[in-house]
Each structure stands twice: as structure tokens, then as C-alpha cells.
């Protein structure tokens, strides 16, 4: 949106991983199966139903996305109940679409200031990949947190402090970084 409608976007904050959708050497067998046409949707739905069956399985699955394996009690109970209500087919379609995107050749066209919160130990989208993507932008900076993929759950105090610092920073200061 920032590239196509620059007059509508003042600046950008990325919370989560900046990725081009294709991370070299990062495709697991499970990912390849779930993204396979025809059977991928069924496999994805089965995995999600198993993962969301109870709190213990959910916590086990979340451990694959975080840096601190001791996440017991960190994940809001509401998250699991809301995920259980999700349309797994729509989630699969979204994941499938994201995996096919590659906007890296257009990043240099984004003229707005881009800030990104990056988990240094992100097992889903490695920090070095995210930093490489940020370097393609004319005006960007990263806030590095000692977390995995789910910044706001793993380090809520640090995340909140960084978020409010970004919110209160003047536009001018963000654009001169």
C-alpha cells in the first residue's frame, strides 16, 4: 500500500517478521506438505485441529515459534479459544498466498520510513533475513528484541516500551533515520 499509494501512508511499523515469502533453506517437509495443492488444505486443517485440541498441545506447538522454551503461562488462554474458532481453510489460503509472495524487488520503491521489531532468535523468519529485507528500503531501522517470533508474548514489557517509543517519536525523527 505504501508503494502504490504513498500519499495515504506516513510511515510504517512492522510488528512480526518482514519476509519476502521465500526464505532460502527454510522449507520443512511439513511446510511443503501443507502448501501442496489438493491435499495441503486437509493436512493443514488436521494439524491445526490437533494443535488446538488442548492447552498442552497448543503450548508444545508454540514452543516451535519462540526463543524461550519456558513459555508455560505466557500464552493468553483467550488466544487458544479464539484460534479454535478460526476458519482453518482461510488460514491455509492465507499461508499459501504469503508463501508465494516476493515483494523484495519493490522494496526500494517504498519512500516512507519503515521501522521493524525483530526477534533476534526468530525460528520462523530468521533475523538475518529480516535485516536483509530492511536494508533494501531507502529509510529503515530495526528494533532488535531478545525473543523468537512472537515478540509481544515473549517480552511484553520490552515490546510495549519499544512500541510506545515508536508511537511518541515525531514523524521527523523517524524519517531521518
Automatic annotation (TrEMBL):
**Which terms in the Gene Ontology molecular function aspect does this entry carry?**
hydrolase activity
Q: InterPro entries, from UniProt?
A: AB_hydrolase_fold (IPR029058)
Q: Which domain of life is it from?
A: Bacteria
Matching entries from SUPFAM superfamilies are given as: alpha/beta-Hydrolases (SSF53474)
Keywords linked to the UniProt accession: Hydrolase
Q: Report the protein name in the record.
A: Alpha/beta hydrolase
